[in-house]
Structure prediction request, 454 residues.
Amino acid sequence: MTLLGDASIAGGRKEEEGEIISIRGGRPLSGRVEVKGAKNLVTKAMVASLLGESPSILRDVPEISDVAVVRSLLEVHGVRVEDGVEPGSLVLDPRDVESAHFEEIDAHAGASRIPILFCGPLLHRLGQAFIPDLGGCRIGDRPIDFHLDALRKFGAVVEKLPSGIRLSAPQGLRGASIHLPYPSVGATEQVLLTAVRAKGVTELRNAAIEPEIMDLIAVLQKMGAIISYEPNRVIFIEGVDRLKGYDHRAIFDRNEAASWASAAIATDGEIFVAGARQQEMLTFLNVLRKVGADFDVQEDGILFRRDGELRPVVVETDVHPGFMTDWQQPLIVALTQASGRSVVHETVYENRFGFTQALVKMGADIVVHPHGLQEGVRRVARRALEQAAVITGPTALRGADITVPDLRGGYSHVIAALTAEGESIVRNVGIIRRGYPDFFAKLRALGADFDVIG
Ligand code: EPZ
Prediction:
């Protein structure tokens, strides 16, 4: 591996910002990586700081572009965001929040879905909000109807414009009874961030209960919110008049942890993921056991490795505590090395197997069923939008020229290239930096043989 060191690369970019890497695969990844705060909590906790009347401190913030996007959106609204004393912490001071101008917001929204979560806090603070059209991974049409329906129930007036949506709350926001058609993570967060300062009680049914949602509830409770939940996905929020800042250490990123675990198994290596906790990964660990992988839960993390021949499995993605949809892409790379026929039923999104085309190009045997597979005993309720992928292995993967399609698929492309014999060129790698902090440095720490070439 030729380290380019500090030498700039094509286009004068720093190596860490490289977009194209050349990977020489066929070597096990082994070593130690640390996962910090969860991308899908940290970005929401940053938005929650808008609701406070005093500064908040958020700890274990990963250095990823999704955080940078939310940071600039907050700053455009007058929130002062500074690095905290503790490395990896942010101080967010919302005491001078004022409405931003559309062009400024649009310039900062980037490829993120987080802006939609600014609605409630901005309506409480300013009585109005403008949210530009949303970005985010192309893994389905990612609608926001559950969000807008909920906001209307709180009393918001929603106006759809060609460039986004404008909201106002002429009579303020009041508690509502909301029943989500599906336990949507984003819609649950939308309701939580709006209900905490609404007048009266909000009852939310069919809520998402992912660990990141529970951590956001902990953040809001620290701010002064009164939130309780029942075992059957019902959450009650008693609106309060004032909220203060919080001091919170974010939950670890279980998606990143599962990604590195899958990399260890796919490349027949051994990776210790510091910061990973068993409790939030139970379902993932059960599947690893069935696949024939081994894991060792320790005080400060989990050690992942293959434990002999990999076995095929049938996996159904689902809302928590089921097998997360974000876990299936990296796992599928490992399943290309399992001896037999595996099936992954993707029930959360309608288009989350696009990344498998590149794996097939590298020699994998994967057949995607765009309307799902009506076979076998199912635990998860079938959904009209679901798809299925059938992976038959083991297949030898060969290096290829591939382009990253989205965050989790992109990570899987890199793992496939590291698993494959020969050289691969992986393009559009910047997308991976949205959700995997210090990605190149972690790959190097695990012995990956690659160069940044563009
Ligand atoms: C969050 O997306 C995560 N993103 C996703 O992670 C994750 O895969 C997903 O939750 C499921 O766990 C962030 O937290 C930023 P949903 P979100 O609302 O909130 C449908 C990653 O890689 N739906 O739970 O957008 C939707 O189409 C990303 O980190 C509506 O129909 O997910 C999907 O089929 C990828 N209408 C299902 O619900 C709505 O208004 C689940 O979506 C909202 C959602």
Remarks:
- The CA atoms of residues 135 and 365 lie 31 Å apart.
- The chain is about 30% helix and 25% strand.
- Residues 39-40, 113, 137, 140, 142-147, 182, 184-187, 208, 255, 324-326, 348-349, 407-408, 435 surround EPZ (CB under 6 Å).
